Amino acid sequence: MEIRELVKRYGRKTAVDGLKLTCRTGEVTAILGPNGAGKTSTIEICEGFRRPDGGTVRVLGLDPADPALKPRLGVMLQAGGVPPAVRAGEWLRVVARFYAHPLDPDALLALLGLTEHARTPYRRLSGGQQQRLSLAAAVIGRPELVFLDEPTAGLDPQARHACWDVVTGLRDAGVSVVLTTHQMDEAEKLSDHVVVIDHGRVVAEGTPRELTGAERQLRFRARPGLDVDQLLGALPPGSAAKESPSGHYIIEGQVGPQMLATVTAWCAAESVTTEDLRIERRTLEDVFLELTGRELR
User: Could you tell me which residues come within 8 angstroms of residue 281 by beta carbon, excluding any fewer than 6 positions away?
Assistant: First the structure.
């Protein structure tokens, strides 16, 4: 999928502002962004549900509005799209009939833990069960490219991991996946390529490792309002320390045994009780918040 200088406006508001994006074959591409960043508009244009106001979009080499794309794509909407009275198994069998070589509906129901609910009307399924049924419908036609919009929203841990297994299986089979999610750990675990957009533009992209970097951090929790400048004075030159959010402390620099000893000694001298003291790499959530800010949208 290739997007070049994409523009989408709603009246005077520009939702997508010259966006450039490439999703490679056989990879999971995660598109991340805060609410109102332009993710949904971009994806709906790629799915053929909206038309752009400028720029070009090619999906599997075709215009998104080309009917020839329909049997080659799988689309999982965030909500809706299923008749409320239809039974889960019935719906999956109906969708399967639109494709020449669909997956086995019963096998998909079993994979996603829906076999016991095959005769349950859609409206009586829980939110998580509805999500899993939508995921099954998106992949049953053996698509070449799948759009997954918040696929694990509202799912319990077991169902979430089952969905992750489906996404991993798609990639292993050579299927391209475009994933939008607010779950940073999900994007970090599943994606080969991450694109962060804000205000309708790409603000960063790369592999999860490229975005998070190789540097390690020392993290701990303690009472809010510690004198971070005083702590920094005890650390080796080139170190950085901050409280973010309140009561959570992050130290960067030459993280190793000496720094760990220095921090614990300083905390002991200041009668500070620490919790959850650990060394780890910067997470995708850290990068996301640095790029897009912490304010609510």
Answer: 212, 213, 214, 215, 216, 217
CATH code, domain carrying 260: 3.30.70
* Separation between Cα atoms, residue 162 and residue 114, nearest integer Å: 11
User: In one letter, which amino acid is 275?
Assistant: E
Residues 46 and 142 in one domain: yes
Helix (H), strand (E) at residue 203: strand 201-206
Whether 204 and 271 map to the same domain: the answer is no
Q: What is the pLDDT of residue 297?
A: 62
* CB 42, CB 16: distance < 8 Å: yes
How many domains in the chain?
A: 2
CATH of the domain at 72: 3.40.50.300
Cα 188 from chain centre: 8
Cα-Cα-Cα-Cα torsion 31, 32, 33, 38, nearest 10 degrees, comes to 10
The percentage of the chain sitting over the pLDDT mark of 70, rounded to a whole number, equals 99
* pLDDT tens figures, 217-262: 899 999 999 999 999 999 988 899 999 889 999 998 888 888 999 9
pTM score, whole prediction: 0.82
Do 84 and 198 belong to one domain? yes
Q: How far apart are CA 60 and CA 52, in angstroms?
A: 17
DSSP-derived pairing of the beta strands 176-180 and 145-149 = parallel
